[in-house]
Write a structure and sequence with these properties.
This protein is mainly alpha-helical and 461 residues long. It has 18 helices and six strands. It has three domains: 103 residues, Fumarase/aspartase (N-terminal domain) (Fumarase C, Chain B, domain 1), CATH 1.10.275.10; 250 residues, Fumarase/aspartase (Central domain) (Fumarase C, Chain A, domain 2, Up-down Bundle); 96 residues, Orthogonal Bundle (Ribonucleotide Reductase Protein R1, domain 1). Strand 3, helix 8 and strand 4 form a beta-alpha-beta unit. Helix 10 packs antiparallel against helix 11.
């Protein structure tokens, strides 16, 4: 460490070196660090701050280092602290003192900031791809089971019948909002901080717009103090990721419930379930459970980053080194969960006979009977009271509403006539034909819209 610690009379304590080193985890930024350095070198040459020959040697050296890393030949050294110094030290070994010119008009503060933004831009693109993959799986199952009915629930109590496709499309909408959030997060991530120096800018005639174009950024940062200390984009990614994991946790919870013997609505494919170490009959929905469990892990990284940032004065502080491990784990956890959930959903087996049976039980048509009375002129609150008494009567007799005869209906209201006996699960679903409803016509429209969104990659709001 003496090569960057000229002011000090001795090297850092070994424990301090281990404590402060980030190379065990920030080595995964090597591609982004090398890309930033190559763009920076080209700019320095363009601006006649270094010669074209120097820039060419630096570029060749960086390409060689990238090949060494990707082939496993590069020796990472903890005493060099981070990916930046590891690459710079190796570049010096390769091309000599010319390597030192690369750090002209640059600090590790704006260097790591550009690395992190490049990494997050890639992560956002991969995340949106993963979200689209799960959405496609949901649509496949919905389309395959377009005519399947199931009970809809409130308070985990049977409430009204719906098409299973309608239920699955609810998760599509959640994930569509997630896509929107990541697309929006990209706007604020897509800002190039290089050229901010340590905190105050640099005293060289640099061309930041040139570097931004080379690296694919749409804009450059406007305040050097903010640029080197901003990690809002990391927090935004982790916040958006937390919302996705919450949605996946809800989906996982329903798959756990639906695959149980008590519900029996679905069977999870063998490839996405596990057995018991002691009970031979068991088929456990471990993938769904782990997706549910890993949501807490991602939430923790978000809260950790918020806590890290809340008390930091401007500009750069070493606390910011804590941005990486949580972000990397969040990205890894989210992408793997999206991928495995897509596979699990795509291979689900729906037990339509069981969902249909459940959709006809539990007085699930009570609201339709109340609506029937409303159409006969009775105020809804009065109709609600009449049907509540009807349900109590049916429960005492051990009957479903569909099993009552006309005379039993008319005991509670003279407005009932023979047409009340036509109320069914199918009529209930068909009647809900307003935009967003569960009627087949509406669900078909929403499926087509959803397919279009996935195909176009655009947003739906």
């Amino acid at each position: 460490m003496s090569n960057i610690r000229g002011r000090f009379q001795k090297d850092a304590d070994k424990l301090v070196q281990q404590y402060t080193a980030s190379i065990p985890f920030d080595r995964r930024l090597y591609q982004h660090d090398i890309a930033g350095s190559m763009a920076h070198a080209k700019m320095l040459a363009k601006q006649n701050i270094i010669t074209d020959k120097d820039a060419e040697l630096i570029g060749m050296g960086l390409v060689s280092i990238r090949e060494e890393i990707e082939t496993g030949k590069f020796q990472f050294k903890e005493e060099l602290e981070d990916i930046h110094m590891n690459i710079e030290a190796r570049l010096t070994e390769k091309i000599g003192d010319i390597a030192g010119k690369l750090h002209t008009a640059r600090s590790r503060n704006d260097q790591v900031a550009v690395d992190m933004r490049l990494y997050c831009k890639e992560a956002i693109a991969e995340t949106i791809k993963g979200l689209r993959g799960l959405q496609s799986a949901l649509l496949d199952v919905a389309e395959t089971n377009m005519s399947v009915v199931a009970p809809g629930y409130t308070h985990l109590q049977r409430a009204q019948p719906v098409l299973l496709a309608h239920h699955l499309l609810a998760y599509f909408e959640m994930l569509e909002r997630d896509v929107q959030r990541f697309q929006d997060c990209l706007k604020r991530t897509d800002v190039m901080p290089l050229g901010s120096g340590a905190l105050a800018g640099v005293p060289y005639p640099i061309d930041r717009a040139f570097v931004a174009k080379q690296l694919g950024f749409s804009q450059v940062s406007q305040n050097s103090l903010d640029a080197v200390s901003d990690r809002d984009f990391v927090i935004e990614y982790e916040a958006a990721a937390s919302l996705v994991m919450m949605h996946l946790s809800r989906l996982g919870e329903e798959l756990v419930l639906w695959s149980s013997a008590e519900f029996g609505f679905i069977e999870i494919d063998d490839a996405y379930a596990t057995g018991s170490s002691i009970m031979p009959q068991k088929k456990n929905p471990d993938v769904a459970e782990l997706g549910r469990g890993k949501s807490g892990r991602v939430y923790g990284h978000l809260m950790g980053m918020l806590a890290t940032m809340k008390g930091l004065p401007l500009s750069y502080n070493r606390d910011l080194q804590e941005d990486k491990e949580g972000l990397f784990d969040t990205v890894d956890t989210l992408l793997s969960t999206l991928a495995v959930f897509a596979g699990m959903v795509k291979t689900l087996k729906v037990k339509a006979d069981r969902t249909s049976q459940a959709a006809g039980q539990g007085y699930i048509l009570a609201t339709d009977v109340a609506d029937y009375l409303v159409k006969k002129g009775l105020p809804f609150r009065r109709a609600h009271e009449v049907v509540a008494k009807l349900v109590s009567y049916a429960a005492e007799k051990g009957k479903e509403l569909q099993q009552l005869d006309l005379g039993e209906y008319q005991q509670l209201s003279p407005l009932f006539d023979a047409s009340v006996l036509d109320i069914s699960v199918a009529s209930s679903i068909k009647a809900r034909n307003a935009v967003g409803g569960t009627a087949p016509e509406q669900v078909g429209t929403q499926l087509a819209r959803a397919r279009g969104l996935v195909k176009s990659g655009g947003g739906g709001y």
